[in-house]
Specification:
Layout (H helix, E strand, L loop, with lengths): L1 H28 L5 E3 L7 H11 L6 E7 L2 E10 L2 E8 L4 E7 L7 H10 L9 E5 L1 E8 L2 E8 L10
Antiparallel strand pairs: 1-2, 2-3, 3-4, 4-5, 5-6, 7-8
């Protein structure tokens, strides 16, 4: 019995260590699992055009590629006017998401009020305004209506909590 508890305890510690390594690796590299660094020259032309128009440069500070469920996306990050801006683009050149770092003073009053209500004593570490581009399509079949949300690269949009 003691041996089983010991083995179970070791397994839990090992699993926790693996999770911690994964979190620290993302913090150290700035990349999530499945993301790989990519050069500007390797980007498809439609992706280059969108990144150039959104970030104003063809030499972003960070470029990554991620393939998930057979969909390839590219993320580029660059400081614009002193603030970090990130864009996510499908391999077909469709803009999927834009993240802008903003100052606390730039928060809308309603957002600031919610923040004060939820965490009045918390220290703000970072604020990002996220704009996600997807298509909302209402369809009907057999008297039932359903709503589909699809990103510009054809991938189904899944809202995060």
């Amino acid at each position: 019995m003691k041996r089983r508890l010991f083995v179970a305890g070791v397994a839990v510690v090992f699993a926790a260590a693996l999770c911690a390594v994964s979190v620290f690796a993302k913090e150290a590299t700035g990349k999530e699992d499945g993301e790989i660094a990519v050069s500007w020259e390797k980007l498809p032309a439609p992706v280059q055009q969108v990144v150039q128009s959104q970030l104003g440069t063809d030499h972003p500070e960070q470029l990554t590629q991620e393939t998930d469920d057979a969909y390839t996306t590219y993320e580029a990050a660059q400081k614009v006017n002193g603030q970090l801006k990130e864009v996510k683009v499908g391999d077909n050149g469709q803009l999927m998401e834009v993240e802008d770092a903003i100052a606390a003073a730039d928060l809308p009053a309603a957002v600031n009020a919610r923040l004060q209500k939820k965490a009045p004593k918390a220290e703000i570490k970072e604020i990002r305004r996220v704009t996600c581009y997807y298509y909302e399509i209402e369809i009907g079949e057999g008297g039932r209506t359903q709503e589909l949300k699809v990103l510009g690269n054809g991938q189904e949009f899944e809202e995060e909590d």
